[in-house]
Amino acid sequence: MRxxxxxxxxxxMGAAAAAALLIGAGATLAAEPLQFGTTxxxxxxxxxxxxxxxxxxxxxxxxxxxxxxxxxxxRAVQQTVAGSLNxxxxxxxxxxxxxxxxxxxxxIAGTVHAAPFRTVGAKGVATxxxxxxxxxxxxxxxxxxxxxxxxxxxKNGLAEKxxxxxxxxxxxxxxxxxxxxxxxxxxxxxxxxxxxxxxxxNDLGVAPDYVPVWAQNNAFINVNWARxxxxxxxxxxxxxxxxxxYFYDGKNRDEVVDIMAKYAGGDRATADKIYGFYIDKQIIAxxxxxSPDGIQAVIDSLVATGELKTPLKAADVIDGGYLEEAGx
Length: 328
Hints:
- This protein is of the alpha/beta class.
- The chain starts with 6 loop residues before the first helix and ends with a helix.
- The chain has 2 domains: 32-114 and 214-326, Periplasmic binding protein-like II (D-Maltodextrin-Binding Protein, domain 2), CATH 3.40.190; 118-209, Periplasmic binding protein-like II (D-Maltodextrin-Binding Protein, domain 2), CATH 3.40.190.
- The chain has 15 helices and 10 strands.
- The protein has a 5-stranded mixed sheet, with helices on both faces. Strands 7-6-8-5-9 form a 5-stranded mixed sheet, sandwiched between helices.
């Protein structure tokens, strides 16, 4: 089918009808690719992205998506602000900091609602009480791992004076400190937490059981790009929602575990445990729904740690119109 639309014909048809005709003709929705970013290329929490790529859900929406793992949440945010990325998925706190600083970004979908962090004790630290006087490894003085650890410690009767902290940055670095015996406990995420448990280290609890209302990661957009690419944005979110539905359909468990193992690395047995944990704790945001309460909890945590001097409301950082349209 050959398709040639004049400007006048397009105006008479309306943008939505013209876009539908383009899709029916087999054309992509935009001449240029949609530049999509994530924090990394091997994070289990990006399972919806991996499913969309493997099952070609983006292509089904006539999108030419170029995936770029930025290397960190901060870089994903920076590149989206700069316009080299159009839509990205990264930690909510990084997005909120940028918006609070005046960046032209908005959260348009939820991806990871609960925080998949676990406090893992050394082999001689099986209870919170036995952690007293020990060294605990967290990401940094304003890192969310410290925020979660303090909540967990307080609810288990430990005051801040009862333990010492060491800042190690990434989960692999914290895992290394735990395995080498340098610390009494470390806050880890998948798959390192499961690897530690398999080696006989002790499970002291997971963050979702202590902070059930949270929005760890979200999809966000460059608002300048979005003004002229609404159709592409909505199509992207339809593909994302389809991926999440695929993840939660129990009939697909084996295939989803295979996809997770392929992208996130590690053995299939570990990937299967991660899948089970994600299902049990509802880690992945169903229907890619935005959690205003979860985003507000992140904002409040940034205020509590002194990172955010001017409190925001969740509504200040959200544009839910694209997701609403994608769900129709």
